[in-house]
C-alpha cells in the first residue's frame, strides 16, 4: 500500500491502554490524486470482518467483547471514508471540467480559421 493512512492492525502492545486508539483511521490526503488510490470498499470490508470476528470491541472485558462494538471508532472510520470519497468526487469533477475546457478550446481553434 502507498503513503496514505489506512486501517492498520491492532497495536503491538499487550493489554492495558483502554483509551488508546488501536487503529489508524482513514484521513483524506492533500493531494487529490493520492485520494483516488485509496480503496475505500476494501478498508470498510476489512473493518467489518474484524468486527464480525470479534477482533474489534468497545470493552476490554472479555465477557462483553463479543457483543459490543466501538461505535465511536466506527463513526470515525465512516467519517474519514466520507471525506476521502468527497475528495475523489471533487477530483473527478475538476478533471471533467478541464476536459470540457480543452474540448471547447479545441473546437474554437478548429472553427476560427475558416
From TrEMBL:
Any Pfam family hit: CNDH2_N
InterPro entries: H2_N, Ncaph2
Domain Condensin II complex subunit H2 N-terminal: 22-107
Biased composition (Gly residues): 10-20
GO term, biological process aspect, one: meiotic chromosome condensation
Molecular function GO labels: chromatin binding
Annotated region (Disordered), positions in chain: 1-30
Domain of life: Eukaryota
Cellular component terms (Gene Ontology): condensin complex; nucleus
PANTHER family (UniProt xref): CONDENSIN-2 COMPLEX SUBUNIT H2
Protein name: Condensin-2 complex subunit H2-like
Amino acid at each position: 500500500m502507498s503513503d496514505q493512512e489506512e486501517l492498520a492492525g491492532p497495536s503491538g502492545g499487550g493489554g492495558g491502554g483502554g483509551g488508546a486508539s488501536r487503529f489508524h483511521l482513514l484521513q483524506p490526503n492533500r493531494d487529490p490524486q493520492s485520494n483516488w488510490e485509496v480503496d475505500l470498499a476494501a478498508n470498510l470490508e476489512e473493518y467489518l470482518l474484524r468486527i464480525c470476528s470479534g477482533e474489534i470491541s468497545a470493552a476490554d472485558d472479555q465477557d462483553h467483547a463479543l457483543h459490543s462494538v466501538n461505535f465511536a471508532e466506527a463513526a470515525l472510520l465512516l467519517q474519514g471514508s466520507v471525506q476521502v470519497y468527497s475528495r475523489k468526487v471533487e477530483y473527478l469533477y475538476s478533471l471533467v471540467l478541464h476536459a470540457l475546457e480543452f474540448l471547447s478550446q479545441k473546437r474554437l481553434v478548429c472553427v476560427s480559421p475558416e
